[in-house]
Amino acid sequence: MRLEAPGRDYRRYQMEEYGGVDVRLYRIPDPMAFLRQQKNLHRIVVQPQYLGDGLNNTLTWLWDNWYGKSRRVMQRTFSSQSRQNVTQALPELHLGNAIIKPSRYVQNNQFSPLKKYPLVEQFRYPLWQAKPVEPQQGVKLEGASSNFISPQPGNIYIPLGQQEPGLYLVEAMVGGYRATTVVFVSDTVALSKVSGNELLVWTAGKKQGEAKPGSEILWTDGLGVMTRGVTDDSGTLQLQHISPERSYILGKDAEGGVFVSENFFYESEIYNTRLYIFTDRPLYRAGDRVDVKVMGREFHDPLHSSPIVSAPAKLSVLDANGSLLQTVDVTLDARNGGQGSFRLPENAVAGGYELRLAYRNQVYSSSFRVANYIKPHFEIGLALDKKEFKTGEAVSGKLQLLYPDGEPVKNARVQLSLRAQQLSMVGNDLRYAGRFPVSLEGSETVSDASGHVALNLPAADKPSRYLLTVSASDGAAYRVTTTKEILIERGLAHYSLSTAAQYSNSGESVVFRYAALESSKQVPVTYEWLRLEDRTSHSGELPSGGKSFTVNFAKPGNYNLTLRDKDGLILAGLSYAVSGKGSTAHTGTVDIVADKTLYQPGETAKMLITFPEPIDEALLTLERDRVEQQSLLSHPANWLTLQRLNDTQYEARVPVSNSFAPNITFSVLYTRNGQYSFQNAGIKVAVPQLDIRVKTDKTHYQLGELVNVELTSSLKGKPVSAQLTVGVVDEMIYALQPEIAPNIGKFFYPLGRNNVRTSSSLSFISYDQALSSEPVAPGATNRSERRVKMLERPRREEVDTAAWMPSLTTDKQGKAYFTFLMPDSLTRWRITARGMNGDGLVGQGRAYLRSEKNLYMKWSMPTVYRVGDKPAAGLFIFSQQDNEPVALVTKFAGAEMRQTLTLHKGANYISLAQNIQQSGLLSAEHSAIWLVKRRTATKWASAGQH
Fold it and tell me: Which InterPro entries does the entry mention (predicted)?
């Protein structure tokens, strides 16, 4: 029993003279009835038999007091001289300090033994002489509490001796202070798994972990017994009842041992209506139109669903401050879902906006963002030396700073900040990691006389997205800041590395296959493996033109395999496990390795189970919303087969059925030497999804050209009719704000959380916590202002959504078509199609196309003037090629002027020499090789017009 008593001054003045702590140990005759009467099993309440200090010390004090007074009376009978003469003759009659010495106070126990329970043992334990609790020898972890908290006197363990199995009550008393607790003595451990409507209990031996049948189990919520039962020959018992948030297991084994387990349960998966709410794009500007689409299904379990109930709904729009902007009426249809649109106000604040859909007394939420785009007073252009950069190559180029009139920004102070985001492909989808700063030499520089700044960025060793933030100042009131994106593709190639299984036995030859995911001239030339247990490694050469290689792992353990090119760059990697004699898991853990990451129904999942020590018994379960299947390690059930590979490793083979989809949990639980451990591993099963493909008649379009899009929906290779929603959005929007809406397949059919909670009677402890009642001032709001996002791109029309088709239906052949005009914007467009068929199966597809023009113009001046203004007419001509000859024709007031120009790559400022003295329309067009490329115009208004 552990006891903590206050030390320091309180010990010195209040407790130390007591001499120790009085301990009484009682045996509870009827433990189950006793525990059922307790309201809180963590804090046992038993009324004491208080006696107080008693008469012993009182009588002692009275005797000493009366004795002293009687001697004083006798002293006053004789004179002082007579008393001195007598004591000199007879020294034994000298009284000394006997009269003034205080009475000896004896510390008596102030509580009498409890009458209801048999007293097993009582003693006084030397509290302050006992060795305090301290960390074990050799435990010295940097930063651990054992390094800066010294052992405190009074924090001790009190041995209670070996007792018979049962329930015991302990009283600890110091003076008038008394504390009680209970001690559970049992050779049985209760391991429980609780779910929403069920409890599974497994009783096992505390030392060897063997199954122990015949234990009486009571499942209680602390107020009453919900249900009860007795464990069978396998030591298991299943009880059916709705699980409260907190419940207790009261158990008594066949030997009379008593144990208690506390269980906590909360729903992590709830099956009801799921509404998928998304917008045409994730980011908007103030004044933009927002299109919203709603798709939904009523789910009954992870796989089975039905159409939603057709009903009206209200869509509320909340701005970044939480204020309600507007409410839109939306009608949800069982087949087509719902759709709506609204327009943001011109003064919409920047930040995150929330969509709240009220449908059938439930509220569903989605979000989008609003940001402002600011036009700077001079432009910052980026011209790279190459179109594409690979890993390992330094990024070079130049920045060009120009005023709207074409004059270079001379001697501007430029600050460069570079962050890198590593790129990875997950499910053929580009994922962005965190943004980490990159050290730059010469991060502060000055532009030259032509407004140029040389740019030299370090090479990236991994595929990355460079985010270059340029902040420039020409001495004006505010700086111009822009962010440029530079994609650095994988150097050379991107390969996949795979094998038939994720583990093998030591000494077996394992064949690894590799294949390029994209065409490249570079190939891997060497492979390398690293054993994680001892960091030993080995490398070998790959056959020229080969697609596989063989490795024989001599030692069991965990390995990392990598493929490298001739420059040593990693092209592919894989983790691999090898079983064999001597392979163990870390102490207190169980390792489970599945042979595959994804299974098809009908396949067999192979699970390699590694224990930290030789284990003969464990509980194996399949779990999701409840314990679906159970088996003992020593007696396999019919839902799996087991093979013992060595003392510490087993291989379990589980046939995969359709009911496992989308995933199910394989759990291993064991106990040994008073400790227990369990480990879960997921079995992921493929869920049928719609294959939605988006195809355009070509990949590059001119501005204003008609785009033809073909949509195809199929299921398992066969065409199927489905409801589709398609959006065509500027890809640069996703550079500023990644897609907020999740993948539709992961939304409707996500990997389910395990709804089973595992606990043990070994972890049942007493606890308490004291909180201060003194009021505390609320903390101040710590909020940073959101930076204004600036998007500088070569475009003319501020159109971010080129097309939005909220409701398209593919025919029986799985075909649907739509067209749209390419906006007057030069960018890359992303086409996203989401669909659902009548059975609730969903899918999502994506395609890209580009709008381009080799030459395009942009006015560097306002497009409307008033009479009296003296405009300095000029424009920018952007060229995608270097040294390109063009002819520029300008027309105003019936006069035409032609110029022959040679353009360099990037922005070229051209000054127009027209003498403008009257109202009219100024137009300009440029041509190259007799082909008209672009035409633009501006006008002068008459007096009084704007």
Answer: A2M_N_BRD (IPR011625), Ig-like_fold (IPR013783), Macroglobln_a2 (IPR001599), MG2 (IPR002890), YfhM-like (IPR051802)
Domain 187-266: what homologous superfamily? Macroglobulin (MG2) domain (2.60.40.1930)
Share of the chain above pLDDT 90, in %: 44
What six digits make up the tokens of 540?
């070998």
Give me the amino acid identity at 507.
Answer: G
pLDDT recorded at residue 199: 95
SS3 266: coil
Report the distance separating Cα 795 and Cα 829, nearest Å. 13
Q: Which of 6, 113, 172, 127 is nearest to 766 (CA)?
A: 172
DSSP 337: B
Tokens of 14: 């209040």
- Each residue's pLDDT tens digit, 505-535: 888 899 999 988 766 666 889 999 999 888 9
Confidence (pLDDT) at 434: 53
pTM of the predicted protein model: 0.71
Q: Which residue ranges make up each domain of the chain?
A: 2-54+108-183, 56-93, 187-266, 273-370, 379-489, 591-684, 855-940
State the CB neighbour count (10 A cutoff) for residue 76: 8
Check: CB of residue 371 under 8 Å from CB of residue 736. Answer: yes
CATH topology assigned to domain 591-684 = Immunoglobulin-like (2.60.40)
Q: pLDDT (tens digit, 9 = 90+) per residue, 449-474?
A: 888 888 888 887 777 778 888 888 87
311/331 Cα distance (integer angstroms): 6
Rounded to whole angstroms, the Cα distance separating 717 from 711 reads 15
Domain 855-940 fold is Immunoglobulin-like (2.60.40)
Report the SS3 class of residue 762: helix
CB 368 within 8 A of CB 318: no
Query: Does 273-370 match 591-684 in CATH topology?
Result: yes
Burial readout 905-919 (b: 16 or more C-beta within 10 A, e: otherwise): ebbbbbebeeebeee
Token readout for 617 is: 């018994």
Question: Among residues 620, 570, 633, which one has the least CA distance to residue 391?
Answer: 570
User: What would be the CATH architecture of the domain defined by 379-489?
Assistant: Sandwich (2.60)
Q: Which of 135, 217, 305 is closest to 687 using CA atoms?
A: 305
pLDDT of residue 423: 62
467/462 Cα distance (integer angstroms): 15
Are 451 and 412 in contact by the 8 Å Cβ rule? The answer is yes
- In the chain, what's the furthest Cα-to-Cα distance? 153
The two three-digit tokens of residue 158, written as one number = 């009190």
- In the block, tokens 């060009």 appear at 400
- How far apart CA 176 and CA 163 sit, in angstroms, is 28
State the CATH architecture for 273-370. Sandwich (2.60)
676 closest CA partner among 209, 71, 324: 209
